[in-house]
Amino acid sequence: MSIAQNIAEIKSHIDINKVKLVAVTKNHDVSAMLEAIAAGITAVGENRVQEMLSKHPEITAHAGRTVEWHLIGHLQTNKVRQAIPVADLIHSVDSERLALEIDKVAGKLNKRQDILIQVNVADEASKFGVRPEQALPLARLISQLENVRLCGLMTIAPFSENAEAVRPVFKELYQLFGELTAMNLANTEIKWLSMGMTNDYRIAIEEGSNLVRIGTGIFGSRK
Ligand SMILES: *Cc1c(COP(=O)(O)O)cnc(C)c1O
Asked: Relative to the CA of 73, which ligand 1 atom is closest?
């Protein structure tokens, strides 16, 4: 199937008025990205700052309209300065140190940076993210930073052949998202629950996700 057909297939399973579809473009070239944008994609997600920066000028010049850039991979503090001018939403904030650095750099660049806290719900050693019990204390701290706006939570579920097996992970993050919303923290705009990828996005949406990050399902497998 073509990229456009893949996007149409995914959109037939989601209510795009309620769920934002981010096309994960890591390891895919600019021409594939432009094809996806022509087929209606309005937001792209990249894992690495370098790759995001290298594609950004060409996409901006040729897409014919603006697209949102989501940074979904782990962010090192020494890359923050490069990331902030381009990133509309950073999904992967997982420490006080990183949040403070983003605040500092965003302040210098006169930007209010939208971010999510990444939560390692399943507590996998291989994944970044704070443990669930650390998420709300970190949110409270972030709410005191002037140049950062906390917009919600993100998780990457463990890979499983059986997508149903990850449902409890999504349920737990949804619960945490409810608690975060109820805290009514100043300076925040809690609106995004970023969970669900190619294998599990339909289950994630059933469990309350309103932002899915899909790569393989749109572009096919990565090199
Ligand atoms: C690669 C990646 C995705 C997309 O994964 P697919 O299985 O290809 O849809 C989503 N989120 C993050 C954080 C990723 O690194």
From this structure: 13
